Each structure stands twice: as C-alpha cells, then as structure tokens.
From TrEMBL, chain A:
Cellular component aspect of the GO annotation: plasma membrane
Membrane topology, as annotated: Multi-pass membrane protein
Principal subcellular localization: membrane
Protein name: Phosphate transport system permease protein PstA
NCBIfam families the record matches: 3a0107s02c
Domain ABC transmembrane type-1: 64-271
Membrane spanning residue stretches: 12-38, 58-90, 102-126, 132-152, 184-205, 252-271
GO biological-process terms attached to the record: phosphate ion transmembrane transport
Organism the protein comes from: Sedimentibacter hydroxybenzoicus DSM 7310
Automatic annotation (TrEMBL), chain B:
NCBIfam families linked to this entry: 3a0107s02c, phosphate_pstC
Lineage: Bacteria, Bacillati, Bacillota, Tissierellia, Sedimentibacter
Originating gene: pstC
An annotated GO cellular component: plasma membrane
Transmembrane segments: 12-37, 67-100, 112-133, 145-165, 204-231, 263-285
Principal location: membrane
Organism: Sedimentibacter hydroxybenzoicus DSM 7310
Record's protein name: Phosphate ABC transporter permease subunit PstC
C-alpha cells in the first residue's frame, strides 16, 4: 500500500516538473520578446528607418540596405550550389559511394563550425589574402559558405520526400533524367527548398560574429550598394549601439532588436506555412 | 541529332552537379588549411605547451606572454554551466511536448521553441546584459558579468536544440514499448521516464553534443555578458568575470597585429579542434545507431 502511494507521489512530481519546464520555456521566450519589443517598437520611427545616420538619429537605414544586399547576393551564390549538391546526393550518386560519404561529412562539419571561425577564415582569405579588404564583398563570400550546409540539408530532405512514382512516371514517358529533375522533382520539392532558403535568410540577418572582421563595423551616413565599401549590417548595428553604453544608443539598440525580432517572426511564420504544404503533399 | 544534344547537356549538368557537391569539401579543406597556415606558426613560435598550459595572457607586455589556459578553462566552465541549466529543462520540455502536452498547448509551445531557435545571438546577448547581469548584480553582488550570467544565457540558447532533437527521438520510440509498460500497471510517468526515455537515449545524447557545440562556439551573446577579463586560474569563480576562447578572439582582433594576431587565430584553431572532436563523437553515435 505504502509503495503504491509513493509511486503515485513520484509520478505526480514528475508530471508537475514536466509541465513546469514546458511552461518555463514558453515563458522565457515571451519574456525576451516582450522585454525587447515593448521598449523597442515605440522608438521605431521614420527617421530611424529611413533617415541619414548621425549621432542623433543613429539611423538603421544604411544597415538595412546592406543587410538586404548581403542576403540577396549570398543566396544568389549559395542556392544554386546547395541545390545542385542536393540533386547530386539524391538523384545521381550511387548508393554507398565513397564521395557521398565524404561530402556528407563535409556538410556536417561545415554546419558545426562556429560563426567566429567562419569570421576568422573570411578575414584571412577574403579580407587579406585576396585583397577584398573589410568590405561587403568579403562579408558576402563568408556568408555564402556559412549558409551552404543549411541549403544543402533542407534541399536534400525536400528532394528525398518527392515520391519515386513521380520520377518513374516521367522517365516512363520518355523524359531524360535531367528533364525529370528540373520539370518534376525540383518543382515538387520547391516548398522544402524555399523553407531552407528562408531559414538561411534568418541566419544571415542575425549574423554578427562572422561579419565583424569581414564586412566590418563601419557605418555610412547614407546607404550604398558599393560592394567594396565597409558597412555594417543590422545585427552589427545593434551590437555597436548596445556596446556604446550611452542611454540614447541603448534605446536605439532596443529598436534595432525589435526589427530583428520582427524579421525572425516573419521567417518562422513563412517556413511553418511552407512546411505545412510539404506535409500535405506527402500525405496525398 | 536531337538525342546527342540531350545527351550532351545531360553529361554537362551531371558534371555541374558533381562540382557543386565538391564545393563543401573544398570549403572545409580551405577553412582547415588557412586557419592552420596562419595559426600553427604562432603555436610553434610560442610553444604548444606554453600556449595551452600557461594561464598568463599578456600579449601587449614586454616580453609578451601568450597563454590561453584560462580561456580554455573559461569555455569549459561556461559550457558546463549551460549544459547544467539547458539539458534538464530542455529534456523535460521535450518530454512535455512529446507525451504530456494537450494539442491546443502544442500549437503554441512548438512554434515558441522554433522562435527561440531563430532569435539572433546578439538579441540574447543584449537581453542578458539588460536583464540577467543586473539581476545577478543586485542579488549576488559583484558586477554581474560572470560565468553564471554566461551559463544562464547559453543555457537558454541551447534549449531549442535540446528540445527539438530530443522530442523527435522520443516520438520515434515504438508505441508498443509504452503499451507493454502501461499494460503491466506502470503509471504514465513511470512509463515515459523508465521505458521511453532510455529507448530514446541516442537522440538525447546527440542533442546534448549539438548543444555543447553551440555553447562552445557562441561568441556575441557571451561577449556581452561575460565581462571578458582574463582571470588567473585560482581567481575563477562562478560570480566573477570570465573570458572564453571565442570572446578572446572577438575582443582583441580589431587592434591585434603580428604574433598577437596570429595567436588569436591559433585560439581559433584550438576552438576548431574542440568542434572537430564533438563532430567525431556525433558521427560515432550515428554509425552505432545505424548498426543497431
């Protein structure tokens, strides 16, 4: 009888602990979000978003433009390479191929390398050895390598989830392998590939450590698209504002943080929607 | 004629796919190569023992001293702290999501965990600087920038990694295990903790190793809450400032030159070796799983 009561008590405690940890995790998130957004959102105004940068406005305009520029060009480089790599791994490589094992190992290794190491590498190769100096271009080159594993693994997952009968149907109708890949497999896998791309956008927008020594912390008064200019992104803008430690710059760090959080929100929302579409597709 | 043309483009694109696939390998080799080329000479000049077993980091003194032992210890403590905080909470939360959570709550909790994973490290760092550091300062004395503040912020940051991987491995345990245990009269909680969780252990280990990797490599969040002072080994305390391998690089790189700069790259090499060891552990778990 006593044993049974003890078992019941232990079970109850476990249940409460499990619920507590679940609520705690959600609570931490809500606390962080509210803490940044409540103080930051009221500070976002036209001057901060689109004004000229000076010590009064601390405008984020030029950083926003650089961030968008970096996102677009990095994706332009990484997405074809990543998707092609995924096509090779899923559609062309033979089972048990040695090269495939090495490629997988390389992708896993790349995924595990910390941002700061990418930053060091970018500084050594792009900034110094290739003579790009601290510039948007150096930042883009570094980021393109950094997001590669993300694109590869999400594309691979997406392509793998395309049912084999689609391929068989296409091949059976006389289409070549290449045509099947581009006309049947890729369009079907598109939502998954897109969600990988969107996650990569999130990673680039939030990146600091890999950019601090490659594109630098410099800020220009007005936006520029010059690839050779050293210009900070939004996340670095926040870091600089936060570490200056002046009351005014701290308030603006809240505002920048709010913009970053809103972007992350949008990124997560879109990927969830896309993932939902893939789910339905494989149910069909 | 048509078919030879199709054949030709087929061959060409196949080559393009293959080359694209090789780029990841080239990138990894290039990263290793350039880090080692710039880092190893410095380690050679300083002496490997002197570099990793000496606690004196005085790169601007005359004569300079380049010892990173204090930062190796710092990284270890901060990571251990993050694991001590993040793993129990994360694991329990994973159990909650997989086995206890009603559907309506799941619809809120799951996106919340994903959002936690997407928040940039700079935002975590700023939150730590504005909330955790002042809290520690007011309640425990000192200036608040400490091992503890770093561990708390890293513990939060590794939560999504621990939760999502553990959750999916808990979900992949066959239901028949559970039914067997429940049928023998065990409570739901006993079943989950004594049967399901042990069966999911390789996924849980994977999540912990990935969490360690994230904590060891995190830079910007730590640099904002750790205080970054190089402490002699006997002065390293839970509530005292600390410098880790990553923050050593980021705080000094902007003004370093010569051997000082190379020794910072060498710090990156040591960090890289840490990560490679973790990756090896991961692939060992993977191959063991594949065998079972």
């Amino acid at each position: 009888m006593d044993v049974l009561r003890r078992r019941k008590t232990i079970s109850l405690i476990l249940k409460l602990t499990v619920w507590f940890c679940g609520i705690l995790t959600v609570g931490i998130l809500i606390y962080i979000l509210l803490f940044i957004l409540l103080r930051g959102v009221p500070k976002i105004n036209m001057e901060f978003l689109f004004g000229e940068y000076n010590s009064d406005t601390l405008s984020a305009f030029s950083s926003v433009v650089t961030t968008i520029e970096m996102v677009i060009i990095s994706l332009f480089i990484s997405v074809p390479i990543g998707v092609f790599c995924a096509i090779y791994l899923t559609e062309y490589a033979k089972r048990g191929n040695k090269t495939v094992k090495v490629i997988r190992l390389a992708v896993d290794t790349l995924a595990g390398i910390p941002s700061i190491v990418f930053g060091l590498f970018g500084m050594i190769l792009f900034v110094k050895l290739l003579g790009f100096r601290a510039s948007v271009l150096s930042g883009i080159c570094t980021l393109s390598i950094m997001i590669l594993p993300l694109i590869i693994s999400s594309s691979e997952e997406a392509i793998k989830s395309v049912p084999d009968m689609y391929r068989e149907g296409s091949l059976g109708l006389g289409a070549g392998r290449l045509r099947t890949v581009f006309r049947i497999v890729l369009p079907t896998a598109m939502p998954g590939i897109l969600s990988g791309i969107i996650l990569a956008i999130g990673r680039i927008v939030g990146e600091t450590a890999a950019l601090i020594f490659t594109s630098g912390t410099n800020v220009l008064k007005n936006p520029t698209l010059d690839l050779m200019a050293s210009q900070r992104t939004l996340a670095i803008h926040m870091y600089m504002l936060a570490s200056e430690g002046l009351p005014h710059s701290k308030e603006m760090a809240f505002a920048t943080g709010s913009i970053l959080i809103i972007i992350v929100f949008l990124v997560n929302y879109t990927t969830t929607k896309l993932a939902g579409r893939i789910g339905r597709l494989s149910d069909e | 004629m048509q078919s030879t043309k199709a054949n030709y483009s087929e061959k060409l694109m196949q080559a393009v796919f293959y080359l694209s696939a090789l780029i990841s390998i080239i990138a990894v080799i290039a990263i290793c190569l350039f880090l080692l080329l710039r880092g190893i000479p410095a380690i050679g000049e300083i002496g490997i023992m002197e570099f990793i077993l000496n606690e004196k980091w005085k790169p601007t003194d005359y004569p300079p001293s380049y010892g990173i032992l204090s930062m190796i210890v710092g990284s270890t403590y901060v990571t251990a702290g993050a694991i001590a905080i993040g793993v129990p909470i994360g694991l329990m939360c994973a159990v909650f999501l997989a086995k206890f959570c009603p559907d309506t709550v799941y619809k809120i909790a799951k996106p919340a965990v994903n959002l936690l994973a997407g928040i940039p490290s700079i935002v975590y760092g700023f939150f730590g600087m504005e909330v955790i550091v002042p809290f520690l300062r007011e309640n425990f004395g000192g200036n608040g920038f400490s091992i503890l503040s770093s561990s708390i912020i890293l513990g939060i940051m590794i939560l999504p990694t621990i939760i999502s991987i553990s959750e999916s491995s808990i979900r992949s345990v066959p239901l028949s295990y559970e039914e067997g245990s429940l049928g023998l009269g065990a409570t739901k909680e006993e079943t989950v903790f004594k049967i399901v969780l042990p069966a999911a252990k390789s996924g849980v280990f994977t999540s912990i190793i990935l969490g360690i990797g994230r904590a060891v490599g995190e830079t910007m969040a730590v640099v904002m809450v750790a205080g970054n002072a190089v402490m002699p080994l006997d002065k390293i305390k839970l509530l005292k400032p600390i410098r880790t391998l990553t923050t050593n690089i980021v705080t000094e790189m902007s003004y370093a030159s010569g051997l000082h700069e190379e020794s910072l790259i060498a710090t990156g090499v040591v960090l890289f070796v840490f990560i490679i060891i973790l990756n090896t552990a991961l692939s060992l778990i993977k191959t063991r799983d594949a065998k079972n």
